[in-house]
Write a structure and sequence with these properties.
single chain; mainly alpha; 5 helices; 0% strand
Length: 126
């Protein structure tokens, strides 16, 4: 029964990872450059976090994979037939984890939308 409670927490970590990569690749660099910190972005991409550049160069892959992760997580969270254990304490923990997963999901979707907007829509207005 304890495994049923731990599964939703894994979705929360996966959801946060998916949305964080979209911010790192696109939204954060655009924000820093907009604030006049282009040198900071250049040093981040060049010296300190060179692997971060891959996400920016392959933003279609990044956003496609993260969208897929968010879609699978949304299905897992809202799937039909989701139940919690019959034990009152375990059911309380299960429902609490489910509420947090819903919050993580919608927060991550908002973060993903901000990243997608800055990566794909905002350049048309620049």
């Amino acid at each position: 029964m304890a495994d049923e409670i731990k599964k939703p927490r894994k979705w929360g970590v996966l959801i946060l990872f998916a949305s964080a990569t979209t911010l790192l690749c696109c939204a954060l660099p655009i924000l820093l450059v907009s604030l006049g910190m282009g040198a900071v972005v250049a040093s981040l991409y060049g010296d300190y976090l060179p692997w971060l550049r891959w996400f920016g160069l392959h933003e279609y892959i990044t956003f496609g994979v993260t969208f897929s992760i968010l879609a699978i997580a949304a299905w897992a969270i809202y799937r039909p037939g989701r139940t919690c254990p019959a034990d009152a304490e375990l059911a309380k923990q299960c429902n609490s984890a489910h509420k947090w997963n819903i919050r993580f999901l919608w927060g991550s979707i908002a973060v993903w939308c901000v990243g997608a907007f800055t990566a794909f829509v905002l350049p048309f207005f620049a």
